[in-house]
């Protein structure tokens, strides 16, 4: 199947790499908003301007949209679904119903398939929440994130006056993890499950005490969490915090049998060296599913919850039954 | 949807309990090979003889077949799929292609849907193997089982002369688990990943040394494992080993990015107080999916790999997108 990449940041670079790991896929090219001549791709993919994409309608089976969820995807995915089968990793949980409606209208009308929110949360974590709650309807569920870099929280710190750069790690609290795994906890709040570690580069002469106070009192982002702030140099930030690791756990505990006498724990866990590259790898596997579903006549907006696992795999149904089942 | 249970051992009892946890399901009755009058059900379900099942063709949406994989299911599932939509938990991995073919012929011809191998391994573990290998195609995968009771290994010990009863626990080796999680191991053998603990009740005057020797040298079952044998009394067996816990992990590690520089670990883990009750709960969730898929016109034999997560859930697509995605 022929894949194209729309948008070329960390995510797009990850998709370029992931496509090389899948022998049944071919990369048509990268479409960028920057000047194509200035763009160096990881493995030398062909580069075009985003404006040229409409000349590739007949050459692209699935277009993987690698934009941001804040402003890019709400505009890009509905627009591009008019002419392409598309996959995105839209991850603003609260706005998914709205995004779904906009994309569905466009994809259903044009007869394309659009698979949205194909990352790990939303994405693989969502899938595991659904499986686990379907099997253990009487139970409690908790998601932990980290240890990993939260881009949104790092950005929030950077907007404070006197901050040159910052990196924020979300860190799960071990005792909360153990409590949840034991089945003794109901739904915990995010602040009961996580601490926040902030590494901050302050401008010369900036008031560090004020910066720390502003971070720790920031509503929604930090106020409800145990937060630590460590000031470091720009060199230290570049040396020790260049990577973008992440991960987490979806844990559901539940009871079965007469009077609920037996307890069970289902846990899905990710430990990722690179958040964008793992998301990219998920996008590529979901692009295969989108291609197969479209071949069977499926159109409109779908989510990861509508995808059967077999459609994600390069193996045939016979091979899957013989080797994976 | 109206569900019936065919076969009433530990699994059937678990299904009876699980149906009560799902408000969208109704239990039509239990069909048993024993004399219905002698059968006490957990919650007082109606009991019929297996011979009466064909009088319920129009009253049962999905029939959950709760038989054993050795001799029951290879005969029951193809036969019952001629008149019912069916779900089973066939778990003899090596014979799945054969079982699939027999069930498919019968279900496709009669226009029913048959979902096979709907437990946890095969079942949820299979699903997770497929997702993880699709997302991280360049990697290694290992499954660990336990700590839990292996019915097959317990039975093998019971067949030795002089053994009154026995319970065998499969126990994962912690150092192997850590090695696999670190991404430093390729595919390990079952013996490299597990030890086997045997609790044996010997007949009075039996030669315990010979029994221990026969266990430890049994090919396939014990010869390739570090095995311990502990002789206990029948009272101790009944007191300390009455439960049927199990569980395990599917772990895939893989690399992404330029030259595979970043590593990732995906782990799906189950910790189950009751193996048959968890399998029963999975069967019930897959029965919901079978019902929905049949409503959409799907017929023939399918496996858990063909089921989209959304079809397992009692929630509507809108609710799932708003609360689970």
Written overview of the protein:
The structure is a homodimer of 325-residue chains. Chain A has 325 residues and is α/β, with parallel strands linked by helices. Chain A is globular, with a radius of gyration of 22 Å. Chain A has eleven helices and 14 strands. In chain A, α1 crosses α10. Chain A has helices at residues 10-20, 72-80, 96-110, 124-135, 151-158, 174-181, 190-193, 208-216, 234-240, 275-295, 317-323, and strands at 2-6, 26-32, 47-49, 62-65, 86-87, 113-116, 139-145, 148-149, 163-172, 194-202, 226-231, 246-256, 262-272, 300-303. Chain A has a seven-stranded parallel beta sheet, with helices on both faces. The mean pLDDT of chain A is 97. β13 of chain A pairs antiparallel with β13 (262-272) of chain B, so a sheet runs across the interface.
In short:
In chain A, helix 8 links the parallel strand 10 and strand 11. A seven-stranded parallel β-sheet of chain A has the order 3-2-1-4-5-6-14, with helices on both faces. In chain A, strands 8-9-10-11 form a four-stranded mixed β-sheet. The mean pLDDT of chain A is 97.
What assembly state would you assign to the polypeptide chains in this entry? homodimer
Mean pLDDT of chain A: 97
Largest sheet of chain A: 7 strands, parallel
Shape label of chain A:
globular
**Most extensive protein-chain contact, per-chain counts:** A-B, 68 and 68 residues
Order of helices and strands of chain A: EHEEEHEHEHEEHEHHEHEHEEHEH
Q: Report the C-alpha radius of gyration of chain A, rounded.
A: 22 Å
Taking pLDDT < 50 over at least 5 consecutive residues as the criterion, the unreliable ranges of chain A are: none
Q: Distance between the terminal alpha carbons of chain A, to the nearest Å?
A: 25 Å
What's the number of extended β-strand segments of chain A? 14
- Helix fraction of chain A, binned, reads 25-40%
């Amino acid at each position: 199947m022929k894949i194209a990449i729309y948008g070329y940041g960390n995510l797009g670079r990850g998709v370029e790499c992931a496509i090389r790991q899948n022998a049944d896929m071919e990369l048509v090219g990268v479409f960028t908003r920057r000047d194509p001549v200035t763009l160096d791709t990881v493995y030398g993919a062909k580069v075009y301007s985003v404006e040229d994409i409409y000349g590739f309608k007949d050459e692209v089976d699935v277009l993987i949209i690698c934009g941001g969820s804040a402003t890019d995807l709400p505009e890009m995915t509905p627009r591009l679904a008019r002419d392409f089968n598309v996959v995105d990793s839209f991850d603003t949980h609260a706005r998914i119903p709205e995004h779904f409606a906009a994309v569905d209208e466009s994809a259903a009308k044009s007869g394309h398939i659009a698979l949205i929110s194909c990352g790990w949360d939303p994405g693989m974590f969502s899938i595991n929440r659904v499986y686990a709650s379907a099997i253990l309807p009487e139970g409690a569920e908790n998601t932990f994130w980290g240890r990993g870099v939260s881009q949104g929280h790092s950005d929030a710190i950077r907007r404070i006056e006197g901050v040159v750069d910052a990196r924020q790690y979300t860190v799960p609290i071990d005792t909360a993890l153990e409590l949840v795994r034991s089945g003794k906890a109901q739904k915990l709040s995010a602040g009961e499950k996580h601490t926040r570690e902030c590494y901050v580069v302050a401008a010369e002469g900036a008031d560090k005490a004020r910066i720390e106070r502003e971070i720790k009192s920031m509503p929604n982002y930090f106020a409800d969490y145990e937060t630590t702030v460590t000031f470091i140099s720009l060199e230290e930030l570049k040396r020790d915090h260049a990577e973008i690791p992440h991960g987490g756990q979806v844990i559901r505990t539940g009871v079965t049998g007469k009077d609920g006498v037996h307890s069970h724990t289902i846990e899905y866990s990710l430990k990722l060296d690179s958040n964008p590259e793992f998301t990219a790898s998920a996008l590529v596997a979901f692009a295969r599913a989108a291609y197969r579903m479209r071949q069977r006549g499926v159109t409109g907006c779908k989510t990861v919850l509508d995808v059967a696992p077999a459609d994600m795999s390069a193996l045939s149904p016979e091979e899957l039954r013989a080797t994976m089942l």
